[in-house]
Amino acid sequence: MQFKLIPIRLADINLMLDWRYEPPFDFYNPPTEHLYHLRTQLLDPFWRFHAVLDKHDDLCGYCSFGEDGQVTGGDYTVSALDIGLGLRPNLTGKGYGSDFLIEIMAYARDIFEFESFRLTVAVFNQRAISLYHRLGFEIVFEFTDPSDVNYLILTKGKQSTP
């Protein structure tokens, strides 16, 4: 599947907020409280949220670049571009993940001029972890956040300490 990225729009956010994942991935369902605040945050250019569209301009997912991809408790001292991402629930588990993430990284290379990428993922999400390994990401850190969720930090590319 071919994907393209554009800065996120309010219409994209409204669609995303209706997405519902099946357990155990319901962990990623957007919270139903504070929707106004969430919409405002997703539209804030600081968080660099982008819509990921297919060739028909249908919303297939989203991504963010920078601090939004970080989780409290992780070690983010090594220089890399953090990527947060999500694929529309009905597209997960169908083999689109590689093309999805490859397009996101290509966009990041072009726009942000980064060659080193970092992903933070919940340990239970073995489907995503397998994808990240297939694309050359390596686990560099494991931690538990303040709400007792276990996470992995994976990186790909040249890392350097600040």
From TrEMBL:
One GO MF term: acyltransferase activity, transferring groups other than amino-acyl groups
InterPro entries xrefs: Acyl_CoA_acyltransferase, GNAT_dom
Transmembrane segments: none
Matching PROSITE patterns: GNAT
Domain N-acetyltransferase: from-to ranges: 6-157
Name of the protein in question: N-acetyltransferase domain-containing protein
Organism: marine metagenome
Source lineage: unclassified sequences, metagenomes, ecological metagenomes
